[in-house]
Amino acid sequence: MNEFSPAVLQTLRDLVWVCPQCGDAVCSALEGWEDNLQDSQGRGALLWLLGVYGDRVTGAPYLLEDCIDGVRSEVSAEVKTELLTATLRLFLSRPAETQDMMGRLLVYCIGRHTHCIEPTSPGR
């Protein structure tokens, strides 16, 4: 399987959320993903999956690196937040492979691009 529609990625994310034992099957399906999604919800779901199961997906660092390389053109704050979270999670399990990309993403997020993640309003 080389392409996933956004709905399929969202369903896979929901499946492993409800049924964590399905994680290995979902990870093996993610191995063949190479197409860039145009839908922010699909990208967010893929990034969530890579963040949670990236230690089981051989190509996870390369998929995240492609997303990091395109972060400047990303308009969705949700996708940027998922990218930052997924990269940090993968860094914790695979530091040697992700150190450089984690650094580049952090430079982007804390540099002049302070809108990398969506701020939350304090409850009143």
From TrEMBL:
GO annotation (BP), single: protein transport
Subcellular location: Endomembrane system
Secretion signal, residue range per the UniProt entry: none
Keyword Transport applies: yes
Key words of the record: Membrane, Protein transport, Transport
Main location: membrane
GO CC term, one of those recorded: endomembrane system
Name of the protein in its database record: Clathrin/coatomer adaptor adaptin-like N-terminal domain-containing protein
